[in-house]
Write a structure and sequence with these properties.
Blueprint (H helix, E strand, L loop, with lengths): L7 H24 L8 H10 L1 H18 L2 H5 L1 H16 L6 H26 L9 H9 L4 H29 L3 H4 L10
Helix pairs in contact: 1-2, 1-3, 2-3, 2-5, 2-8, 3-5, 5-6, 6-8, 7-8
Length: 192
């Protein structure tokens, strides 16, 4: 990829993945659900085309989303990049081949996300970002935990469900893609 640049198939994948992220994320946000589902496209692009493409997809999604509708999304661009990086590395290591490994991948992605997201949510937004998870931050905080603990527990809990569900959705999508599509993405050998 470094020598040839991005192929036209990879560019199309990035654009489609950004649209998937934004549409799913907006629907969940409008419904105020305590999960996000805004990284389906990021993980899909990472699994199909590798960690660099996954990182790029996550970054571009959050920047575009931040500019168009939700400025808070731009602040979480580093989180989206980590999702793409970790998912791509896990896919290369064969962690998207079987359902148990996919579930474990969701857990590993969650742990990486928590390290990045907690400081952003705590220090930039005081724990409140306008998502459905805000209720849980407030509840855990009202139970006597400090703000960092409240945010960490909420981020960990919400992302655990979200990233496992997202990883399973991506795994199912990839397993059902036509063979002619998969030929354009050589990294897929470690997934199927």
């Amino acid at each position: 990829m470094a020598r040839k640049g991005l192929s036209s198939q990879t560019l199309v994948l990035i654009v489609i993945s950004i649209a998937i992220n934004m549409i799913a994320g907006q629907l969940v946000s409008m419904l105020k659900l305590p999960i996000f589902l805004d990284s389906i496209g990021t993980i899909l692009s990472a699994v199909l085309a590798g960690p660099i493409v996954g990182m790029l997809t996550g970054l571009l999604t959050n920047i575009i989303w931040g500019l168009l509708t939700d400025p808070i999304a731009a602040a979480f661009a580093p989180v989206a990049m980590v999702i793409g990086l970790v998912a791509g590395l896990l896919a290369r290591a064969g962690w998207f081949k079987t359902l148990p490994k996919v579930v474990c991948s969701g857990v590993v992605i969650t742990l990486a996300v928590t390290v990045i997201a907690v400081p952003i949510r705590t220090y930039l937004f005081g724990g409140v970002t306008g998502s459905g998870a805000d209720f849980f931050v407030a509840y855990v905080h009202s139970m006597g935990n400090d703000l960092i603990e409240s945010v960490a527990m909420t981020v960990l809990g919400a992302n655990l469900v979200d990233k496992i569900l997202t990883a399973i959705i991506v795994w199912l999508l990839v397993r059902n893609l036509p063979q002619r599509t998969l030929r354009n993405f050589p990294a897929m050998a470690t997934v199927r």
